[in-house]
Amino acid sequence: MPKGWGYTQLGKLIEEPKYGTSKKCTYAPEGAGVLRIPNIVNGSIDTTDLKYAQFDDTEKASYNLMSGDILIIRSNGSVSI
Predict the structure, then answer these.
(1) What is the pLDDT of residues 15-38, one digit of tens each?
(2) Checking CA distances to 45, which of 39, 56, 65, 74 falls within 20 to 30 Å?
(3) Which of 17, 71, 13 is CA-nearest to residue 41?
(4) Over 70: is that where the pLDDT of 79 sits?
(5) Which residues contact 2 (CB under 8 A, 6 or more apart)?
(6) What one-character DSSP code corresponds to residue 27?
(7) Which of 20, 26, 28 minimizes the C-alpha distance to 59?
(8) What is the distance between the alpha carbons of residues 36 and 27, in angstroms, rounded to a whole number?
């Protein structure tokens, strides 16, 4: 463990975990970009294969990544799809 780090419970680091969206997404560049499992590669966000969806203002506020957010991606996805 790096110097200065310590153990803590995940609940002390996050306000409210969210699943994300299951809204229908398309490659048509209309609306907001949606990060999917294949968009997270080697610890970085890759937007070369981005899909898009239409969200209302409440959904946009809920799903928008902010500085300091913790992004967790399921590991059972296939990059080849």
Answers:
(1) 777 788 888 999 999 999 898 888
(2) 56
(3) 71
(4) no
(5) none
(6) S
(7) 20
(8) 12
